UniProtKB/TrEMBL annotation:
One of its GO terms (molecular function) is DNA-binding transcription factor activity. It comes from Caballeronia choica. It comes from the Bacteria. Keywords: DNA-binding, Transcription, Transcription regulation. Gene3D superfamilies: 3.40.190.290, Winged helix-like DNA-binding domain superfamily/Winged helix DNA-binding domain. One of its GO terms (biological process) is DNA-templated transcription. The keyword DNA-binding applies. Residues 303-336 are annotated as: Disordered. PROSITE patterns: HTH_LYSR. Residues 1-59 form the HTH lysR-type domain. This is LysR family transcriptional regulator.
Amino acid sequence: MDRLQAMQVFTRVVDTNSFSRAADTLNLPRASVTTIIQNLEAFLNVRLLQRTTRRLNLTPDGAAYYERCVRILADIEETESSFATSAKGPRGKLRVDMPGAIGRMIVMPMMCDFHTRYPDVELMVGFGDKPVDLIQEGVDCVIRVGTLQDSSLVARRIGVFQGLTAASPQYLERHGVPETIEDLEQHTAVNYFSSRTGRIIDMDFVVDDKTIEVKMRGNIAVNDAEAYLSCGVKGAGLIQPPRFMALPYLQSGELIEVLPQWKPLPMPISAVYPHNRHLSQKVRVFVDWAAELFERCPLLSGQEDSEDRCLPTSTPSSTIVKRGTPEVAGTADVVA
């Protein structure tokens, strides 16, 4: 029995809470995963997992063995990485996930640069606004907007998400331009609801260093970011998109910013990964590269700029990131 492989299989089964998902993420047949766990339990002469029809539970011995396996595997990876020569560099498959708007507008246009630097890293990039459970789905790293609250994950801040309030010229002609927060009572918004909770996300404004949330009436609520932006452009109501996404529409006149003196609360953009990935060389170089990429984008590095050199000049058709949209599993107020 290959004990190192057995440790890797066992920890992946625990992390994903599934023999099938562990097999998929390790590119092994499910029968092989089952056999490896059975042989490991026989070798150790203890029961590691309690199997039920719905889930897997660690036994006390299994929990203790899991903690030791995680440390051992992390030490092995760190040791191997430390001896990797600069000529070889990081290598292997790296699975990352990010919001569609950030991925398509910021990251993917520069992906050739990443592969030029790290040709032996095989990237699997996922996009979407659905919650991602890094452990169970075998994701190495995600880019997320919001404050991380799950202690089982590590977050490194790589940028700043700044929103604004806007509406189409047609909407403002019909309803007037709001001049104060109180004026919003007479206006309609396109509402956005969380895919995770179903809760409508209120608009928010920073007034005298305090965040004020405003519940807006509206006839349309969506949980799709592209639809959210489209509704605003078509005149369905006020919206609060990110500035980096709204910029082309502001420049073309399809959107007009309102209440510019009271902007939504900025939120950090972070690279998020599990604790047991922090020693991975391929994760480290991707996070460093992403941080460098965001630093070069004025609208995503906390700088006010009417133009952003890292954004495409064409009108985007990708998704929007909205405060309160789906979170990383196990976190709160982290926008996907």
